[in-house]
Write a structure and sequence with these properties.
Helix content of chain A: 25-40%
Number of helices of chain A: 13
Order of helices and strands of chain A: HHHHHHHHHHHHEEEEEHEEEEEEE
Radius of gyration of chain A: 26 Å
Shape of chain B: globular
Strand order of the largest sheet of chain A: 4-1-6-11-8-9
Number of helices of chain B: 2
Largest sheet of chain B: 4 strands, antiparallel
Radius of gyration of chain B: 20 Å
Shape of chain A: globular
Oligomer: heterodimer
Structural class of chain B: mainly beta
Chain lengths: 377, 394
């Protein structure tokens, strides 16, 4: 329900300008969303955002679709302000017995060009108020750009396969279908295990797009953890024929390939169990297009990554665990050859668990699906 | 007239009460219940509410509402605040946010490990991703900060657990880690940064506390020791630099700061040199593991890694007695009257009778689920949460 003050505000504006209330309400909603979108780092424009959210919360269900559309251009902070406005409006409406604009929400979800987080939000509210209609959408999500919506379709297929008799030939096709949309590792692991039971081997390395061929050089000095900001020669040039003075004598690039299903490149066992050391790993990736990607790295060691000679991120943390897709760094590939250089640093801790020296790396679409290099089927 | 009556009722229902539980380990003396005594056992379950996703933060209780944070989704990147009616456990509202910082963490932890805080009017919910959301008691978002969004290397791959506190209009957020280690003082009204401190580099899972005395001071613990700061400015008042643990948190009572340092160390603010505190005693036999120490008027209690409860004399730190409990503990216990309430990681809740001569486990209750969160208490009731449930015991 409109607040009294808000209603008076609309009425006065309408009387003065001769416009109808709905037209002006729509304009106000757009202005309020624009105000929210201005919030940014360090709470910049926070007053505008707060006022915008407060107004949106009073705007009623007509604001729901504009809020979803507003999410298209929202930075991560503004997105949360808009989400809260959406949820308060929607929950108030439901509590007051109002019907949400389900048809509009369904159309919003179906349009895959809309932003993934906004589509997911709309889907959740459809599921709350019209669960059957939400369920009908799910089979279409298997190839969806949204990882969260794809997950729904994969889960549905997994459930169907698990409910089939063991000798039903449909099980294998269900699992293979599910694999085609799976990028969350808990789901992939389930599918791979089920297919293995059906004598179908999955190339997990290829499924995720792990880089498996690397050139390594080192060790360079990182005693007392002083090597993080030291610029060793590979940071200035990539010359795979060059020889440099390393920590323990001259060093040259060596090629290593990993067969590990999860693309694990074990520096400690396959290159050297160096301590207080810097090792550089270099690889290349052919991209068909200029495209946004995520560089996904897992390592318990400190690291820096350069893409095409540009430092994209660095982190000086040692032995705080390593997890699948531990770091997700947004980046942009150029068409043709892209150069990836990773500086991997080991400290001098002598605990048994601190001997791990490894990386796992993939370049994927921002939604987590593998990106195959150009020219590869 | 009806409008004013409604306003009055609304105000009465939301104003914080003296025995509210507004932050991690409670509002006044950490872990010590000041209000009505708690039930004699955990068996007396008044209601159970379902929770989604994961979370090891403590519930907080403001007036007639219980607030619980959580995280959902395969990457735990959906951050939640859920509000329940204290009377019957009915869910009143739930709000969700998208994490703006990293959400990887050790499988034992979750992104919703830090406990939210309240000043009685607003909820300040923080997460391992270093997102901080401020909501009113009705679930309306007042401000939102992404500290890792602002400073991308403020994170810890094992997860972060420091709970926020709010003191004199400042929300103190410790986001201390190996790489970009910082503590922030945010304006409680609008979330803007009042101050930010570069802090010792090193993973730190401890939580700040407010000095219970008249001076407005907040105490920060790190591997380097303890720093007392003014919450309004972040300015250092005094420092203890002899090292401290990075998991169990300090507490304060009777003018003493009890720090997990060399076992336990008791400090009191310096007199001749006010920038250096005086060490009253150090007790290597009182060494807490993950649960923080709980200190009453006369005794300090710690639980070690083997589940042994030790009682030390607050006057000199000497160990008085030990009592073996069952299991391994992550949650900090509560003390109410002469009873200690502890829940082990397997969800076995034990009530220990405390006397000057020894401790005795009086009874136990199986929750049947992993419990890592420190319980909370208000108005004679205990609140316990797991990933899946919130229980009120009264």
């Amino acid at each position: 329900m409109l607040s009294f003050r808000f209603a008076v505000r609309l009425l006065l504006i309408a009387l003065i300008t001769g416009l109808t209330v709905p037209q002006f309400a729509a304009a106000d909603v757009r202005e309020d969303i624009a105000a929210v979108l201005k919030v940014d780092h360090q709470a910049r424009n926070i007053d505008l955002a707060r006022q915008g959210v407060e107004n949106l919360q009073k705007s009623g269900i007509d604001a729901l679709l504009p809020i979803l559309n507003g999410l298209e251009d929202a930075n991560p902070l503004a997105a949360n302000y808009l989400r809260n406005a959406f949820e308060t409006v929607a929950s108030d409406a439901v509590a007051n017995g109002q019907k949400l604009p389900v048809e509009d929400l369904l159309n919003f979800v179906r349009r895959t060009k809309n932003r993934d987080i906004a589509r997911r939000l709309a889907f959740e509210w459809i599921r709350k108020v019209e669960p059957e209609q939400a369920e009908e959408l799910i089979p279409n999500f298997l190839g969806d750009p949204s990882a969260e919506l794809r997950r729904e379709a994969v889960a549905r297929l997994l459930k169907e396969a698990e409910q089939m008799e063991p000798n039903n030939p449909g099980r294998q096709s269900r699992y293979l279908q599910a694999l085609s949309g799976a990028s969350d590792d808990d789901q992939v692991k389930k599918i791979v295990a089920a297919l293995k039971d059906l004598d179908v081997e999955v190339n997990v390395q290829e499924h995720y797009g792990f880089l498996n061929t690397w050139h390594l050089i080192g060790p360079f000095d990182n005693r007392d953890k002083k090597g993080f900001d030291v610029v060793y020669p590979p940071e200035n040039e990539i010359n795979l024929e060059a020889e440099y003075e390393g920590q323990l004598g001259p060093v040259r690039w060596q090629q290593l390939q990993t067969d590990d299903p999860y693309g694990l490149l074990n520096i400690a066992t396959d290159f050297g169990p160096y301590k207080g050391a810097v090792v550089y790993a270099y690889s290349e990736f052919e991209s068909e297009y200029d495209q946004p990607v995520e560089l996904r790295l897992a390592t318990p060691n400190a690291w820096k990554i350069w893409l095409n000679d540009e430092l994209v991120f660095e982190r000086e943390e040692y032995h705080r665990g390593t997890f699948f897709d531990q770091y997700r760094v947004p980046a942009r590939l150029k068409p043709g050859k892209n150069k990836i250089l990773i500086k991997v640093l080991q400290n001098e801790q002598d605990d048994s668990w601190a001997q791990v020296y490894q990386i796992q790396f993939r370049i994927c679409q921002p939604n987590g699906m593998a990106l195959q290099p150009a020219g590869k089927e | 007239m009806r409008y004013f009556l409604c306003l009055m009722l609304l105000a009465l229902s939301t104003v914080a009460q003296a025995d509210d539980w507004l932050q991690f380990r409670g509002t006044s003396s950490p872990g010590v219940v000041q209000g009505p005594e708690l039930p004699e056992s955990f068996d007396q379950i008044a209601w159970t509410a379902d929770l989604d996703g994961r979370g090891s933060s403590s519930p907080i209780i403001v007036g007639d509402k219980v607030f619980v944070t959580g995280c959902e989704g395969p990457r735990q990147d959906r951050l939640t605040v859920t509000c329940f009616a204290e009377a019957d456990g009915k869910q009143l509202w739930k709000r969700e946010f998208w994490a703006t910082g990293r959400t990887v963490c050790h499988q034992k932890m979750s992104v919703a490990t830090p406990t939210p805080a309240s000043d009685g009017e607003r909820i300040y919910a923080s997460y391992s991703s270093n997102d901080v959301a401020c909501l009113d008691l009705e679930g309306n978002l007042l401000w939102y900060r992404g500290l890792t969004y602002d400073f991308p290397n403020v994170s810890n791959s094992l997860g972060m657990s420091s709970s926020v506190i709010v003191k004199d209009g400042t929300v103190v957020c410790m986001a201390e880690n190996d790489t970009q280690s910082m503590t922030f003082g945010l304006n409680a009204d609008d979330g803007t940064t009042k101050w930010q401190l570069d802090r010792p580099r090193g993973a730190n899972w401890t939580s700040p506390i407010a000095w219970p005395g008249e001076e407005s001071i907040v105490l920060l613990q790190s591997s380097k020791g303890v720093t007392a700061i003014e919450p309004a400015t972040g300015k250092t008042v005094w420092e203890y630099l002899d090292g401290a643990a990075t998991i169990p948190s300090l507490t304060a009572v009777n003018g003493l700061v009890i720090v997990p340092s060399h076992g336990l160390t008791a400090l009191k603010p310096g007199v001749s040199d006010t920038t250096v505190p005086e060490i009253v005693w150090q007790a290597s036999q009182l060494s807490p593991s993950t649960p923080s120490p709980v200190v009453t008027e006369n005794y300090a209690y710690v639980i070690n890694g083997a589940g042994v409860l030790s009682c030390g004399d607050l006057s000199d730190g000497k160990r008085v007695w030990q009592c073996r409990m069952s299991g391994k503990f992550s949650a900090t216990p509560l003390i109410s009257g002469d009873r200690l309430y502890a829940i082990n990681e397997q969800g076995n809740a034990q009530v220990v009778q405390l006397t000057p001569e020894g401790g005795e486990v009086l009874n136990s209750h199986e929750f049947g689920e992993t419990v890592l969160a420190t319980p909370s208490a208000a108005d004679g009731a205990i609140y316990v949460r797991s990933d899946n449930h919130l229980w009120k015991i009264k």
